[in-house]
Design brief:
7-stranded mixed beta sheet; 5-stranded antiparallel beta sheet; alpha+beta
Length: about 250
């Protein structure tokens, strides 16, 4: 069983913490390396989106993992990371958040955290890098994103302590990561994600994947974390990739 013991390396600035973590993984670094940067100049998010990461305004870090769990469970790592962030924001900042499938953290219907998991083949076997970016202050994103993004400071009216939040998050991640590798752990993670996400069941959503757009009602998640969406014309669609947005239910 793989035990996650964090080893933190800090940088004032990096193009991307994920890119640095992947470089370190290729060089053979052990599991548990945590790359933290005060600023990213080329931060990346899901679906090839840019993640704005100005100096001192957010918590930006990436974790190197070499899971010993069966490969079929690796798809749960993004969901696991979202659960850990949800737990840590509540513990460290007394902030309750929602999880939008698969792993965006939402507060007041605006995005407060993004997560990007990337697999890489190395001489020591396949590794997974999990990158997490949390908006801590209002300076974390430009004014034109005010309607879709929010910071911990705005949501709680208190300036968060970056180090306290990081410590809480690494503790939570370690606990959930250990569970992933235990018998029955995958099901417990799926249940925990479902209990923390209003998007899990009964949410009317639009899913965009390239040129394809479908709408329907969410109906839970598959064993690999894929989202079930009940459509009006095609029955249940299993969503493994795409951008999910909520739609207001007509009265």
């Amino acid at each position: 069983m793989s035990t996650f013991v964090p080893s933190v390396r800090r940088f004032a600035t990096l193009p991307s913490t994920n890119s640095e973590a992947m470089r370190q993984a290729l060089a053979g670094v052990d599991e548990g390396l945590v790359i933290v940067a005060s600023e990213q100049t080329a931060g990346r998010g899901r679906l090839d989106r840019k993640w704005v990461s100005p100096a001192g305004a957010g918590l930006y870090f990436s974790i190197v993992l070499r899971p010993l769990a069966e490969p079929g469970s690796w798809s749960l790592l993004p969901l696991l990371a979202a659960i850990a962030v949800n737990d840590a924001l509540f513990e460290a900042c007394q902030l309750e958040t929602d999880i939008k499938w698969p792993n965006d953290l939402i507060a007041g219907e605006r995005k407060i955290c993004g997560i990007l998991a990337e697999a890489i083949e190395t001489e020591k076997g396949r590794a997974v890098v999990v990158g997490i970016g949390i908006n801590l202050t209002k300076e974390a994103f430009p004014p034109n994103l005010n309607e879709v993004a929010i910071s911990v400071e705005e949501a709680t009216t208190k300036r968060p302590d970056r180090e306290v939040l990081l410590a809480a998050l690494l503790r939570a991640f370690s606990s959930w990561y250990l569970l992933l590798q235990q018998s029955g752990g995958q099901q417990q993670i799926l249940e925990a994600w479902t209990s923390r996400s209003s998007f899990a069941k009964g949410k009317r959503v639009k899913v965009t994947n390239g040129n394809e757009v479908i709408t329907g009602i969410t109906g839970g998640v598959e064993s690999d974390g894929a989202l079930r969406v009940e459509t009006e014309t095609e029955g249940v669609r299993i969503i493994r990739a795409g951008d999910v947005t909520s739609l207001r239910t007509s009265v």
